[in-house]
Amino acid sequence: xxxxxxxxxxxxxxxxxxxxxxxxxxxxxxxxxxxxxxxxxxxxxxxxxxxxxxxxxxxxxxxxxxxxxxxxxxxxxxxxxxxxxxxxxxxxxxxxxxxxxxxxxxxxxxxxxxxxxxxxxxxxxxxxxxxxxxxxxxxxxxxxxxxxxxxxxxxxxxxxxxxxxxxxxxxxxxxxxxxxxxxxxxxxxxxxxxxxxxxxxxxxxxxxxxxxxxxxxxxxxxxxxxxxxxxxxxxxxxxxxxxxxxxxxxxxxxxxxxxxxxxxxxxxxxxxxxxxxxxxxxxxxxxxxxxxxxxxxxxxxxxxxxxxxxxx
Length: 312
What we know:
mainly beta; Jelly Rolls; 2 domains; six-stranded antiparallel β-sheet; 6 helices; 12% helix; 34% strand; globular
C-alpha cells in the first residue's frame, strides 16, 4: 500500500504569518491573512483530515481509523475511539500566549482534555526564544502577584534553541512559543489550552483574548524550574505513553520503512525528499501516513525525517 497523505487544515491566528507558503510552497486559503497553524493529521469531531489522493481519496482519517483500522494501522489500538494523536506545523511570527494544558488527574474536573506534546524546531530566527517552566525560585504566590500586575513574562524561563532541537511539554508545564519559529508539534488528540497571560495584546477581533486564570493556576507544575532543550537518546527525541518521535537522517539512495512491519507510522519530511515504489515523491513539509506492511520509501536526496509511532 502507498503512503496516505491528507489535505492540511489551516488556522488563522493573531500570532501567525506566511512561512508555510514561503518555506513549504503551500497555497494558503487567503492571500494576506496570518496563518499560525496547519493541522496535518487530525481526527476530531469538528476537524478532520481528508485523504487528498489515491484509493482512499475523500475519506476522513476517522473513517480510516474506524473502518480500516487493522488493514492500515495494525493491531492493538482498540482502546482508542479516535486516532489518538494530533500533528501540526506552527508558524509563530509573534509570541503565543503563556499557557498550560491540564494534567490527567485534573482534566475532567476542569472540563478539559489533558494534552502532552513535543516541539521539534524546524526553523527559527537567530535568538528566538521559547518560554518553558518557571524561573528558579518563583513561587505560586509570586506568580499570582505577577498575573495581577501584568508581569507574568518575568516569571517564565526562556531558552534560545536552534533548528533541529526539540523539547517535551508534559501536561502541567507552563509554556509559550516566542516569535520567529516554525515548529512541528506532536501531541495528544486534545484541544484544551488555558491561557494565563497574553502579553497584554488584543486578538484578531480587536478585543483582549479570554484568559483562564483559575484553570491555569490549578494546572501549572510550580516545581518545574528552568528546563533545558532535550537531548536525544539515539534517534529518539521523545517517548511517552502517548507517542514516540524519532529523528532519522536518511542519505540519498537509502530507505526508510515502518519500525514494525505490522504497524503503521507517520513520517514528516523536515528536509529533503522521499519517493515511493510507485514513483510518487514527497517533498519537504510532507506528512505521510505509512500503512502497515508498506514498501520502503527511498530518499532521493539526503533527508531529515521525523518518524512518529504509537506505543503498544
